[in-house]
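Dear colleague,

As promised, here are the two records you asked about, laid out in our usual form so they can be pasted straight into your sheet.

NAME FIELD: protein one
SEQUENCE, THEN STRUCTURE:
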Amino acid sequence: MMDSEQEKPTFGVKLKGRHYQYKQSVYGIAYDQRQQTFLTVETKWNNLLLPGGGIERGETAEQALHRELLEETGFTIQIDAPIGRAEQYVLTPDGKAILNDAFFFEIRLLKQIQVSRELDHRLVWQPLQSVNELFHTHQAWEVRVGL
């Protein structure tokens, strides 16, 4: 994993005069065995995202990834390797300004032990050619880095 702030790429545009809330997140990148598709979550707004989410106080990135993947997919996972770290300036639909500092890991889905708690999320395997359809630029960048 990249530790140096200089090595952490930043995406998005920081708007002048806006205060950005700092938020750490973690995302899992699962490829099929032939590395031709990768796992995404499609939201009710038809946005494609990598599975994952915010790191809660007291959690490591790895603990948060296990929790988030179970919540979003119902699957237990194996974390194979760290891929990298990137950040993105984001404006939410309700107008909040966030600096998303994200950790990315290559993962494997193991066993589905429950149904997803996120009823508005649907798992979709995407061909690698559609990586630019991901809603967040830093996620698309990390999918390409992980290959």
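NAME FIELD: protein two
SEQUENCE, THEN STRUCTURE:
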Amino acid sequence: MAWTRDEMAARAARELQDGFYVNLGIGIPTLVANHIPEGVHVTLQSENGMLGMGPFPFEGEADPDLINAGKQTITKLPTSSFFDSAQSFAMIRGGHIDLTVLGAMEVAQNGDIANWTIPGKMVKGMGGAMDLVAGVKRVIVVMDHANKAGESKILERCALPLTGAGCVDLVITDLCVFDLERRGPAGEKSLKLIELAPNVRLDEVRAKTRAAFDPGAFQ
């Protein structure tokens, strides 16, 4: 069966390494904070100006002044620090964040990502995604394999305006995990299937993917 949102977040949390500075995007990625493996110590950074985010608060304990970039209430830790967004983005642009987990509307087989706007629909702003995909060392995308209309979100080429080109390193969907390896003489990226969700078959992934990919050990 397909992974739930929490199971997708838990799979993404397995990519965290001890000592990492990590940025979590809006949506499913925020759930990664609840699944950090035991014994792995990471520092969560939010582009709105917080380093060292704690877990989501229990009901009745939320502080409305403590929010992440997605406007969700969070908690602080004894080691938390606060600063303005200029300093926050200096961390990102300066390459000081080890990993970011983002949502997406589309990912292309060469690692392009589109996750900031749909033409004709209202957008409040581009947020920090463009800086994140350009400045962070490793980019992981967590998203549903298909959109609400049942159309694949993994494509040969993104149809929506790009957030970044060739920057995605790993894609985790409700069906599977794709690694984007650099292959070919020009070092271009391509999709390789490295994991299937429980009871999900390769044929189902192929039917719901509009991009070429290496089936790896599952062929």
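A couple of things worth noting about protein two: Helices lie at 5-13, 85-93, 129-135, 202-207. The two ends are 19 Å apart (CA to CA).

Best,
R.
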